[in-house]
Amino acid sequence: MLLRGDSVIDWHRLAFSDHTEVDRFLRLNEFDPGSDEEMGRLEDIRAEAVEYVGRVYGFAIPDEVAEEVAARDLFLMASRDGHNQRWACVVLKAMHIIHHVAGRQAMTTLSVSDEVINRQIEMKVLQVVEELRAAGAPIAEFEWSRKPRDSLITKLMAKRSTLAANIYDKLRFRLIVPHYDDLVPVVALLTRQLIPFNYVVPGESVNHLIDLGKVLESTPAVRDLSERLQPDARGMRRPPSLNEFSSPEYRILNFVADIPLRLERLLPRAEIGSDTSHVIFVLTEFQMADKLTAKENERGPSSHDAYKARQHEKVKLRLLRGEHDPLPPD
What we know:
Elements: H1 19-28, H2 36-57, H3 63-68, H4 74-77, H5 85-108, H6 114-134, E1 141-146, H7 149-158, E2 171-177, H8 183-193, E3 206-207, H9 212-218, H10 220-223, E4 253-262, E5 279-290, H11 291-296, H12 304-319
Parallel strand pairs: 2-5
Antiparallel strand pairs: 1-2, 3-4, 4-5
């Protein structure tokens, strides 16, 4: 999902083998499996999902999926063959969206500044990356930035869509690994310690570096699953999307994720209503490359200065366009 930018709504099975894996995934999504309150919230989301798919689409969800097993067990049910595997996937997809909508709604009611929210995301990511480094993860360089106001204005000037809501790189993290072969292991670590795969933003991944088909073929643990993944998952058959101002030689792994953040990091627990989602979501961009590729990306037409020059030229054309001048190409 991270490499291809697909949507979890199009998946037809999961791959959890036991409760340990499920609980790790729940914690990644900021649900504490040991909290009765938060597991109760998960049950409420399941109940709303079952009601929604029944009322809107007429689905008769089997009792086992709808209420008999714990909501936590649906992840295992969606990973194993059986009559209820598909129905578990249906309910989990609806739960995923319902939880996301609730988190987004909670964010609109917060009396907390973007500065405070962004700082908490930076602290969360920094803590995970430093823990990975301390454990020996091959991360040679790590930095983060917020898009400056001038850059935000310029990007909106250059885009056909001038909505700030469509800017995904207001908060960006950049990780450089020592060698090309370190990319896949570090991506895997990030999806286990920081980035829930289900909240990778569909259609926003750019992968010029990792051949997913080769990874599937060379990794025994997933080789037997490769044929059972969603269609067209084995290779890079769809051309990756490029930023229009990037050089054709520029190579990067770039993806956007809606990172969950617990409200407790922003507000005293007493101020968080019981009818409010306990998490919000913050759009965050990640860039990755190996050191050799990163060095090549800063040369000639691939450099950031050359990128900005091309971007500024288009903005000038748009700003100075006369009545009979053609639109600058995208």
